[in-house]
């Protein structure tokens, strides 16, 4: 058993793959072995998480998830007897005992034989709870007694350990099917012990909030040949994208150039977005790019309205006309759209036709939605071997797909992959558990980041960080995807470090950009 989210990458298996692994393992082992192992691991983790609990509630459901809970309760009762009778183990069972599946029925029989009593109602108070109500087969919101027990679990404030998945969480998508009347903002310590496989739903959409700290035990079952993972979890930046030790005999040209096109001037429609471009540029510079240029959109023709950034004087400001006619359009990484407003649409035909490496963010994505010719040019770029990275948030993704935000959020992995396949581009679908996808490749879910990033400008910082990652000497397409994933992970790690060091006040995008390396 181990904690998840610390090192390396992890394969994530959806419902069908997990079922296949489970069937293969069950056929090779004596009856009830997997449940016996699962219940023991739940009991061991419960003891480790709640060593001083006086009352532990084990809430069991009508399926095999409930069977795992019954086995755990049997072990916890035995542990308590051997150590002086603590804690008090209260077990409830939702469902008809006569209709339990075979493994769960066996677990109930064994539990009753040891003297374990099944209570009619949850305890009036408890120090720790085990959620063994619903598992990977849940397909609709909990109802009746199940819903009642879930509301009590999640509103109690007591720490909760979920068995395999938090009840009601979709294994593939991370969408939570809430019980009627359930408080979505209930705050409590949460843990999840994922058994046999790690599931993608634990790490994106509602999954991260509901699962809390994820633990994993493979129950002694080795990976199965021929069973494909649905996604990959990124727990640390890929080795090739880690902070690099620079050779002495290098110069600024060795680390590439990034051009930021964005930052609509306030003269355009009375809405200034200069800061967005500056944030992206600062992030690209702090991220390691050798040179960073900025062209602000909507300024007076022939000269830049902003001539320098006093907090980051290394940035080189150029007029849009000068940059668009320079060789940089064919040699630098272009980051386009950060606060670009409507003006960015005028530049996109030339940008799409010239830039071998391109990051499209925010207003650039919105402009592409409105123009089928731009969409066609975007799709054609891959035929030249050019790199395009799209960085939409869910609403922008929905617009690109001709859908709505709810549909995107109902299956973030599928939405990101659809965008990659449709536009022949790498896609970073932002949000809790950002998804990185590419044509013909397994999508990745980023494990870093937190709600400190929920503030204006952090997306611009991410675009700049991706730009600096792409500015390195080109490698294979797979290396490029890994660089993008590394930038996304590093972006989240900066926010994680902010929280861990207990800074006063809120994280701002400018603070984030300064730490981008």
Could you explain how this protein is built, in words?
This protein has 517 residues and is of the alpha/beta class. It has two domains: 2-229, YjeF N-terminal domain (Rossmann fold), CATH 3.40.50.10260; 255-514, 3-Layer(aba) Sandwich (UDP-N-acetylmuramoyl-L-alanine:D-glutamate ligase). The chain has helices at 15-28, 33-49, 64-82, 102-113, 144-155, 207-211, 274-286, 320-324, 328-331, 344-354, 363-369, 372-380, 394-401, 405-410, 412-423, 458-470, 477-500, 509-514; strands at residues 2-3, 9-12, 55-60, 88-93, 118-119, 128-132, 160-163, 190-195, 213-217, 231-234, 257-262, 291-296, 316-317, 333-336, 357-360, 387-390, 426-429, 435-437, 444-446. The strands form two sheets. It has an eleven-stranded mixed beta sheet, with helices on both faces. It has an eight-stranded mixed beta sheet with strand order 1-9-8-7-6-3-4-5, sandwiched between helices. Helix 2 crosses helix 3 and helix 3 packs parallel to helix 4 (102-113). It is elongated, with a radius of gyration of 26 Å. The two termini are 33 Å apart. The mean pLDDT is 93. Belongs to the NnrD/CARKD family. (6S)-NADPHX binds at residues 64-68, 135-141, 164, 276, 339, 393, 460. Its EC number is 4.2.1.136, 5.1.99.6.
């Amino acid at each position: 058993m181990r904690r998840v989210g610390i090192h390396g990458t992890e394969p994530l298996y959806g419902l069908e793959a997990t079922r296949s692994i489970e069937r293969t393992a069950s056929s090779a082992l004596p009856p009830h072995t997997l449940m016996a192992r699962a219940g023991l691991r739940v009991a061991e983790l419960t003891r480790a998480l709640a060593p001083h609990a006086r009352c532990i509630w084990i809430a069991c459901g009508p399926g095999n998830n409930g069977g795992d809970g019954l086995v755990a309760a049997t072990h916890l009762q035995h542990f308590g007897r051997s150590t002086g009778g603590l804690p008090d183990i209260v077990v409830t069972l939702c469902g008809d005992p006569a209709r339990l599946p075979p493994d769960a029925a066996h677990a109930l029989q064994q539990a009753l034989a040891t003297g374990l009593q099944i209570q009619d109602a949850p305890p009036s108070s408890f120090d720790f709870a085990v959620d063994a109500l619903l598992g990977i087969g849940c397909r609709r919101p909990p109802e009746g007694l199940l819903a009642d027990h879930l509301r009590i679990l999640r509103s109690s404030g007591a720490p909760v350990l979920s068995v395999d998945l938090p009840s009601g969480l979709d294994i593939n998508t991370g969408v939570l099917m809430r019980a009627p009347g359930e408080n979505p903002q209930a705050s409590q310590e949460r843990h999840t012990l994922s058994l046999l496989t790690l599931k993608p739903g634990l790490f994106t959409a509602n999954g991260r909030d509901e699962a809390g700290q994820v633990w994993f035990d493979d129950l002694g079952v080795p990976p199965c040949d021929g069973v494909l993972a649905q996604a990959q979890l990124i727990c640390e930046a890929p080795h090739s994208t880690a902070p690099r030790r620079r050779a002495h005999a290098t110069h600024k040209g060795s680390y590439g150039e990034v051009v930021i096109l964005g930052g609509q001037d306030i003269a355009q429609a009375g809405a200034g977005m200069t800061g967005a471009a500056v944030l992206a540029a600062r992030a690209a510079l702090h991220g390691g790019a050798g040179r960073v240029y900025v062209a602000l959109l909507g300024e007076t023709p022939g000269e830049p309205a902003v001539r320098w950034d006093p907090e980051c004087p290394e940035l080189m400001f150029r007029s849009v006309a000068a940059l668009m006619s320079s060789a940089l359009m064919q040699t630098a990484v272009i980051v386009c759209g950060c606060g670009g407003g409507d003006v960015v649409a005028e530049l996109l035909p030339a940008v799409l036709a010239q830039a071998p490496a391109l990051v499209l963010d925010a207003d650039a994505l919105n402009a592409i939605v409105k123009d089928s010719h731009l969409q066609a040019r975007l799709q054609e770029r891959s035929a030249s071997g050019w790199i395009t990275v799209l960085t939409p948030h869910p609403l922008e993704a929905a617009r690109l797909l001709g859908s709505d935000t709810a549909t995107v959020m109902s299956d973030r992995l599928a939405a990101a992959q659809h965008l990659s396949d449709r536009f022949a581009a790498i896609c970073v679908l932002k949000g809790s558990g950002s998804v990185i996808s590419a044509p013909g490749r397994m999508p990745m879910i980023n494990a870093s980041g937190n709600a400190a990033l929920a503030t204006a400008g952090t997306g611009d910082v991410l675009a700049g960080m991706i730009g600096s990652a792409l500015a390195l000497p080109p490698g294979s397409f797979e290396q490029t995807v890994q660089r993008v994933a590394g930038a996304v992970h590093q972006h989240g790690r900066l926010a994680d470090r902010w929280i861990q060091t207990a800074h006063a006040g809120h994280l701002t995008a400018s603070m984030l950009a300064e730490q981008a390396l």
